[in-house]
Design brief:
alpha+beta; Elongation Factor Tu (Ef-tu), domain 3; six-stranded antiparallel barrel; 14 strands
């Protein structure tokens, strides 16, 4: 009895259980409303794009011409700055020491030039004049001595050697008079023009060296290139600041009086977008608030797509045409936010 009726009953129960399990596992087509409405526009034809909010004059990644140790930071994120206002500065002790040395060299060069320009000193003229009179007196004495020996009638009483020595003494004394007079005239004439020109050149060279060091000193203080708002500040006192392009800018600056939206239009849709086309945008994730956009310009060079939304259906291996739109002043958005942009298309 068990074999005849039990086994078929168990098989029937197993079959029923399997059928119920399969029925429960079948997918059920259910319709649910999306948690957020998708972006929409009243345009008959439209092109979708991903936009990124940026400053009206583009975000400026402030960098350094030379690397160094950060000494002071004068701003923080959110501060409004004027053009030329200090942002941060590097350690400048070695450059200031070099500047002091160059300034001392400049003072030395100026002193040398001033000495040349003020020559001769009034005190030097009497001394030179006295040397002329001394030489003239020695010449007069030598002539008297020569006249005395030449006045002897008996030439045998004097030696020819003594006579010749007296004559040479007169010549030497005469030459010394000429030398003293020439020295006096040279002193009275003042500095030679060529010496003054050399001294002027040394002063100009010293000034150039001072200006160069001052320029190096000025480069160690970074100032705002435009009037705007500090969007990011990633530099701290005591940190080493590297020069050149950085993955994370030291300070991100932008003019936020009016924000722009950089919309990436797929290259396939680029021919459908015309200058002046109407457009609206909404912050990603909030399609209920729509912001009108005003056409500014195209960037005609098509570039690889970099602004990604991480959507599963998004194309990443494509190129995009960047279209710049302006938001209305006071729009409640922030730089760096992504926006869904809909552009009226032909």
């Amino acid at each position: 009895m068990l074999t005849k009726y039990g086994i078929p009953a168990i098989a029937a129960l197993a079959l029923a259980f399997a059928m119920v399990s399969v029925a429960r596992l079948r997918p059920v087509d259910a319709k649910f409303d999306p948690p957020l409405p998708p972006p929409a526009a009243d345009f008959e034809r439209k092109v979708g794009a991903v936009g990124l909010i940026e400053a009206s004059r583009e975000n400026i990644a402030v960098s350094l011409p030379v690397p160094g140790l950060t000494a002071a930071v004068y701003v923080k994120a959110g501060d409004r700055v004027a053009k030329g206002q200090k942002l941060f500065s590097l350690d400048d002790r070695d450059v200031r020491a070099e500047l002091a040395l160059r300034e001392s060299n400049l003072e030395l060069a100026k002193a040398k030039l001033e000495r040349l320009m003020s020559s001769p000193r009034p005190e030097e003229i009497p001394a030179a004049d006295a040397r002329v009179k001394e030489a003239e007196a020695q010449l007069s004495d030598a002539r008297v001595q020569l006249q005395m020996i030449e006045s002897v009638r008996d030439k045998r009483a004097i030696r020819a050697e003594d006579l010749e020595r007296r004559r040479r003494a007169v010549q030497v004394a005469s030459a010394r008079v000429d030398e003293a007079k020439a020295a006096l005239h040279l002193l009275e004439a003042g500095a030679w023009s060529q010496d003054i020109e050399v001294a002027n050149a040394e002063v100009r060279q010293a000034v150039s060296q001072v200006d160069r060091v001052r320029a190096d000193l000025a480069r160690l203080t970074v100032v705002a290139p435009i009037a705007g708002e500090v969007l990011q500040c990633k530099v701290r006192p005591g940190e080493y600041a590297a020069a050149g392009p950085l993955a994370q800018p030291l300070i991100l600056l932008g003019s936020t009086d009016r924000l722009h939206v950089r919309a990436d239009v797929d290259e396939r849709d680029a021919p459908r977008v015309k200058p002046g086309a109407r457009a609206i945008a909404s912050v990603r994730g909030d399609a209920r608030r729509k912001f009108p956009l005003h056409f500014v310009s195209f960037e005609p060079f098509v570039v690889p797509k970099k602004n990604l939304t991480t959507d599963a259906t998004e194309r990443v291996d494509t190129r995009v045409l960047q279209v710049i739109y302006a938001l209305d002043r006071g729009a409640p958005v922030l730089p760096g936010q992504q926006m869904d942009v809909l552009i009226e298309a032909n």
